[in-house]
Design brief:
- This is Dipeptidase.
- It is a single chain.
- The protein has about 450 residues and is of the alpha+beta class.
- The chain folds into two domains: about 290 residues, 3-Layer(aba) Sandwich (Aminopeptidase), CATH 3.40.630; about 120 residues, 2-Layer Sandwich (Alpha-Beta Plaits).
- It contains 13 helices and 18 strands.
- The strands form five sheets. A six-stranded mixed β-sheet has the order 1-2-6-3-7-17, with helices on both faces. A four-stranded antiparallel β-sheet has the order 11-13-9-14.
- Helix 11 packs antiparallel against helix 13.
- The radius of gyration is 24 Å and the shape is elongated.
- The two termini are about 25 Å apart.
Length: about 450
Amino acid sequence: MSDDVNDIRTKVQALMAQAQADLAQMVSYESVFAPADNPPADCNKMVVWLAKAFTAAGFTDIAVHVTSDKSKTVTGYKKGPPGAPTVLLYFHHDVQPVPNRAEWKTDPWTLTPQNDGRWYGRGAADCKGNIAVHLTAIRALGDNLPVNLKIVGEGSEEQGTGGLEDFVADPSNHDLLAADAILVGDAGNFADGTPTLTTSLRGVANVIVAVDTLEGPMHSGQFGGPSPDALAALISMLATLRDAKGNTTVRGLDNGMTWSGQQYPPDQFRTDARVLDGVDLLGSGTVSDMLWARLAVTVCGIDCPSVDEATPAVQGHARALVSLRIPPGITAEAAQQALMAHLKSVAPWNARVTLTPSASGEPFRTATSGPGYNAMVAAMGAAYGKEVVAMGQGASIPLCNVFQTSFPKAEIMLFGVEEPKALIHAPNESVDPSEIENMAVSLAVFLQKFAKVTG
């Protein structure tokens, strides 16, 4: 480890108590953005806290912008030396809701250290832990910031309502956000302690499919048999979206791609995904193929009577939300159209089928060459003392494509503290504080290296 990295490490370690205090304050804000309602007061409190924290870290021109979906985006600027490159740091400050509080072992809105060494709380990793990384790295560099630094903090990422996408795409905001490198702090390592850059994101194409066969539910004893069951029709249609091995099978879409980067051991995936003993993994490819390089269909919800409220009736109406994850190389529009055509073609009994396009987002692939990527690989390798690996991410971040379109010359890199054990979006979300430390060291060292190779 070089003297520069050792120096940064010492400074970051001295700042970890403040990082924990910052994260505790952020987690205490229930900043769940609800686009159908007025944003809760805690969303505003979170924005005020961010403005104060980054101002104290030396940022000027801190501004709060109300975007098209009524969420609030925070921007700011910290000037570096003359002629230095510019780096934009992205994060989001909204979090997932907590609908199943009884499943939490700790108060989700109180950052709680546990005996396993992790800090628990909603947003501890996604994405407030990454905000702590940014602040800690900036504080470690102090007055020796080697680049011009900008921030953009989104207020509605978890809802996918597009407020920041519209803001970034607006040419009038390009001077505010333009940078040589854009660091998206909303990802995570392949595993604890394994430095990882995310180089590929699957997109998403959602469709709502509704099936109607009767004017209403009819008594199954009196009419069952010849009466066309809408729920049974829907189930049969959904069953055609996978073959016997579990491969996604949407007519007209290729699903034989492979992943050449980091391989995901099946046993590790079973543990990370909490697969029950004896239950098979899906697909005929490797876990990495299935997770990062291929299509993946999920039935996210079905509207039909619940078991507890069911009556002996043939259902005349049923509908489902079908989500199709799509790898780079397939557009969201093509995938959505193919999914709708497939479902229409397999409908039985001349049932009436209504197909409604829902949310969609394009897949994304980063460049894995260039001074920024190489500097980040070197910085993360030095911080972790290990070789950096590249992996894909099954989730979608539509904003990355908007960044790429709006700033085609900028290098875009995805990193963060959201490794598998973090259980983002689930009960008992947590962050490993060593990930905050190592990522903060990585970021600070990256800024130093990037300034040297581009300044």
